[in-house]
What does this fold into?
Amino acid sequence: MEDEAPQDDSRRDWDWDDAYVGDGSETTPLDEQLLADVLGLVPGRALDLGCGAGGNAIGLAQRGWQVTGIDISTKAIASARQSADSAGIDIFFEVADVTTWEPHDEYDLVLSSYALPPQGSQRVAALAVARNALAPGGILVVGEFDATAMSWGKRSDFVTLEEMIKAVEGLEAIRIESVATKPHDHGDHGSTPNHGELRAVIAVARRPVA
Ligand SMILES: C[S@@+](CC[C@H](N)C(=O)[O-])C[C@H]1O[C@@H](n2cnc3c(N)ncnc32)[C@H](O)[C@@H]1O
It folds into this structure.
């Protein structure tokens, strides 16, 4: 009997454009829980991978960061651009796939805010792009819902603490924890479901300087 091919859930069975209107109305404020460790730092170059409607990118730019935001959804980037323009903020936004994107620069902050592809080869690729984009001394911040506490969705869409500890091996860990979190607000368009305690795994780690 032939071996079964290894399962790879990386490909989503929906289009991210369906999650956005594209008019800026989904843009929400910066996530202070996720970005707590970097808000006091001297601002530098920041990369937001899977930036969605641009709330974190805009919040970082308002705090002095020079921000690049990447998202696979044309509508998400349209929203992000519209909101940045309305706020009078200059951010480089690009429609691109974070699993194959090649950085134009190296970054002092690389962020993935609830934007990792599902477990499998696409997630591995996205995490490699994120790590490779870090400047020496740069900080990686990854936040994703904790699979062990989810009452909805597919487990492979989320992460475990153990997975994130492995994902930042070789970097200097600053904070890796599973914490209670709130449902995500989608601006004028409701929020993520909340059928019980919602938890997030937050991993913050620094690329060694040498
Ligand atoms: C749950 S939303 C989070 C958006 C934003 N980071 C935030 O925290 O509000 C996930 C985002 O990741 C983007 N995304 C998913 N897979 C992607 C990929 N392979 N390349 C680029 N963006 C991707 C989606 O289009 C979506 O905007």
